[in-house]
Amino acid sequence: MSNPRAAPLRVALIASARFPVREPFAGGLEAHTWTLAKALSERGHHVELFAAPGSDPSLGLNELPVHRPVLSNAARADVSMPDAVWMAEHHAYLRLMLDLARDGERRFDVVHNNSLHHLPVAMASALRLPVVTTLHTPPTPWLESAVQAQERCPVTFTAVSSHMAEAWHATAPGARVIRNGIDTRLWSPGPGGPYLVWSGRLVPEKGAHLAAEAARKAGWPLRMAGPVGDRQYFADRVEPLLGDGAEYVGHLSRQDLVRLVGGAAAALVTPCWDEPYGLVVAEALACGTPVCGFDRGALGEILTPECGRLAPPGDSAALADLVHETVSLDRRAARERAEHFCSLDAMAEQYTAIYEELTP
């Protein structure tokens, strides 16, 4: 890590209200937020994390008030009444932004919105503080509306990949690309081994079933790890493919996941949507594990011919055909790609530079 800066900054880091920011992480967004908070703190900055209840208390935690507001019978009977989760998140971010509008200037130098919610963007003009928002997903109606509702949106936008910056170009044309970095001290090189690995949330858009199909066609055992985010999908599409070499090993801690990924001959990455970044790709490369994936979203930005292979989206047979090439790639080249392209140092320094640019 680089030396702490002489003038530390006070950063309010807004996280997702849906899942706690703690191990084992619910997904890449939570892992990224945890890593960023730690990296900024190690550089001497004062970080307070606003996140879901149950998040890691070592991060200077302020728990978002994620609870259902008390609504009248008339309000609950209204035909436009959203579901309880939507209302709880809306209530939490509304409370937070009103609090920051009231006394945020006294407590912080900059607000970094790392959530996917629209209110931190829509209410940014109410704050007497600079607001940075990282774009982690493709455009949504709520977020686009939040930007366009303001004649001059005061938010400074960053995007996690060139692919994301392009997707948001019409609404946030000035978004700067700051790619998600990973801690290569933790994600250390492994020896490889006699199996393939797939990691991530077990939801339809991550395509674990296609990884199982490809591994079977290629004749390789597969170990899958991650939280079951959609139990119906898991039961219908993944469980029938388990056995005969395919194994689900559960939702692992990072240390266990490092050992699993580092012990694999290659990692399969099978997005069924345009992946905004692909943190699992960076993690695999840092472990020296080459990647065989679908050419969707930002995967083509991260992988080079020296460390991975890309198949047409959704084509498990084509993916299987590339496994033999992928497992023969140089593990040192994969590690070097992670060190140069997925650097935690670079990410933290780039965010710090933006904060300093925006603060007097």
Automatic annotation (TrEMBL):
Domain of life where this protein originates: Bacteria
Keywords from the named record: Glycosyltransferase, Transferase
Entries under InterPro entries matching the protein: Glyco_trans_1, Glyco_trans_4-like_N
Domain named Glycosyltransferase subfamily 4-like N-terminal: residues: 27-185
Pfam families to which the protein is assigned, alphabetical: Glyco_transf_4 (PF13439), Glycos_transf_1 (PF00534)
Glycosyl transferase family domain residues: 193-331
PANTHER family the UniProt entry points to: BLL5217 PROTEIN, GLYCOSYLTRANSFERASE
Name of the featured protein: D-inositol 3-phosphate glycosyltransferase
Native source organism of the sequence: Streptomyces bikiniensis
